[in-house]
Amino acid sequence: MRREAILGISAFYHDSAAALLVDGEIVAAAHEERFTRKKHDSSFPDNAVRYCLSEYGLKPSDLTAVAFYDKPLLKFERLLETYHIWAPRGVRSFIAAMSVWMKEKLFMRRTILEALKKIEGAPVRVPLLFPEHHLSHAASAFYPSPFEDAAILTVDGVGEWATTTIGKGSGNRIEILAEMHFPHSLGLLYSAFTYYCGFKINSGEYKLMGLAPYGRTGSGGAGRYKKLILENLISLKDDGSLFLAMDYFSFATGLRTVDDDKWTKLLGIPPRAPEAPLAQEYMDIALAIQEITEESMVRLARTARQMTGMRNLVMAGGVALNCVANERVALEGGFDRVWVQPAAGDAGGALGAALAALHIWLGAERNPRGPAAAPDAMHGAYLGPQYADLDTERMARKFGAVYREYKSFPELCKDTAALLDKANIVGWMQGRMEWGPRALGNRSILADPRNPEMQKKLNLSIKYRESFRPFAPAVLEEDADQYFELTSDRSPYMLFTAPIKEFRRKLSALKPDAALAERINAVRSDIPSVTHLDYSARIQTVSRDTNERFWQLINEFKELTGYGLLVNTSFNVRGEPIVMTPEDAYTCFMNTEMDYLVIGRLLFDKRNQPAWERPSTLDTYELD
After folding, report:
1. Phi then psi for 84, rounded to 5 degrees?
2. 65 with 8: CB under 8 angstroms?
3. Which end of the chain has the smaller Cβ count within 10 Å, N or C?
4. 3-class SS at 242?
5. What CA–CA distance (Å, rounded) separates 12 from 108?
6. CA 276 to CA 283: how far, in whole Å?
7. Environment class of 374 (CB within 10 Å of its CB; exposed 0-12, middle 13-18, buried 19+)
8. What was the pLDDT predicted at 2?
């Protein structure tokens, strides 16, 4: 019996990926970067496509359709019209863009068919579909959600023309009701400030979000910059839409994002050089643009509520990865429940394209979700490759690695919990790799949240990244409300923040203008390593039904310490994609100051490993 199999693809901007549906079920999805080890890899996802097909034993000729996540010709039209409007400005940028488009982007049908031919070993005839970019985002948010009906909000940099859309979903139908068009874009505005504060665009936006709480409130700090932004750079409307003052921006036709001279004159401070010390003014700017972004998102959500009359909201697009803004939307947007696609950025467009093909092109009904409280269709976002203990044993033989094999997984969890209790840092690799930018307990680095030294140690000795960046707690779902003031009963994808509850400690002796290091290292709660400057935390609730192994480990830590949560950060160093294979994990383990590594039922003690004679890979990764 032939199965309906649809392959979704995103490529050629950033975070290329592939996803596979079989008979309406999401069976596989992966980012190309995890295979190539190139962060935010934008190349055609050959490896991810091969993985998805092999996961279900399919050949390209078995596919019902292949869906690409946007319309290249429509995007090309926007490019040409934009340069025509601004001509003769942007000649250098135009020439650079045309070179890329003529080589790969304009001939997407040919590129896809040639890639499938290489896998099949013969030409493949399969329908190719090209849903619009924001329709792919909308489909990725609505169809896997727990809701039969929902308002849909998608916000990113830009697709073809749209930068923001409001729509509604019902059953297997999606209707787009309103759009905001390029060049006016909340995502591009946030990216402009990401650049101005010294971080990498399409990579460092989450750093800007993490830096914001260090900004000073009031007219002497962020308030001053917020006023300058709202009076000079943008016009923010009551419905959440905005208009950019394009005289200050150069991304439409230039090789840069903003006019540095005009911004310097306006803000009174030049762009921060990457890796330069963080002056307080940049922290204030980060807070200002974060607050403006949150306000725009809340207004957009309220507009979506008014336009659709729906009680539930789903979101996707790169801006939907801003978990602080998501929490504001959940609290103030006027909806009963909010659900966000865990791969909300461009990678998730691959899944959305496949889902749009299934439900819109084929007209397939959605699988029954049951009541609104039922889990979503994402399988916990555990959709990537997995490896058996035999694969890890082969890796160990290759490196001469020493390990202990456990016959009982509960015994492994008990011993690992004891190691964590003794201030050890543990690399933890289990089961299928996560889909999306967050490590959710299968490719994670874990630590004790009670240890006040752990944030500093993880940032400087493990991740090799900026000291101000916070860490997330992974907490037992059933215990979450003991520690955090949650807006819903679960947050499985680390896409919402929540205030710390009664575990806070007052910091009356800490001055508002204290040095950055002093503010970072101040102990704010009984779980200081996951408590940010504003007493918030980015929450992952862990369900036994979704990830039993991770739940077992956290539960063992609770049995030992009384605390049902752990520090959970992605298993990688700065600039490196999250590890995928046992070799990736062991290499990262040996190149950092991690104490132990657990892969499957095998435990590696750093003290017992042979001398690491391979060159460090740390220098091969670009700073993010």
Report:
1. -65, -40
2. no
3. N
4. strand
5. 10
6. 13
7. exposed
8. 66
Q: Phi and psi for 275 in degrees, rounded to 5?
A: 70, 0
Burial 491-500 (b: 16+ CB within 10 A, else e): bbbbbbbbbb
Distance of alpha carbon 135 from alpha carbon 153, whole angstroms: 11
Which residues in the chain land under pLDDT 50?
370-373
- The β-bridge partners of 154 are 165, 316
pLDDT at 378: 96
Angle made by CA atoms 166, 148, 49, in degrees to the nearest 5: 75
- Edge-first strand order for the sheet with 149-155 is 173-181, 162-170, 149-155, 312-316, 337-340
Give the C-alpha distances (Å, rounded to integers) separating 490 from 454, 496, 561, 584. 26, 10, 23, 31
What pLDDT sits at residue 373? 46
Task: Please tell me the predicted confidence (pLDDT) of residue 234.
Answer: 98
**Chain Cα centroid distance, residue 623:** 17
Q: Report the distance separating Cα 597 and Cα 599, nearest Å.
A: 7
Count of Cβ atoms closer than 10 Å to residue 110 Cβ? 10
Answer for the pair 130, 160: CB distance below 8 angstroms, yes or no.
Answer: no
Token code pair at residue 573: 């160093």
Angle subtended at Cα 601 by Cα 595 and Cα 604, rounded to the nearest 5 degrees: 25
pLDDT value at residue 95:
66
CA dihedral 615, 619, 622, 624 (to 10 degrees): 110
Q: What is the DSSP letter of 75?
A: H
The residues, any chain, with a CB within 8 Å of residue 124's CB and separated by 6 or more, are: 60, 61, 113, 116, 117
The CA-to-CA distance between both ends of the chain, in Å, stands at 47
β-strands 602-605, 404-405 pairing? antiparallel
Cα–Cα distance, 424 to 421 (Å, whole number) = 7
Structure token pair of residue 64: 């019902």
Q: What is the DSSP string of 408-474?
A: -HHHHHHHHHHHHHTT--EEEE-SSPBSSSS--SSEEEEE-TT-TTHHHHIIIIIS---TT---EEE
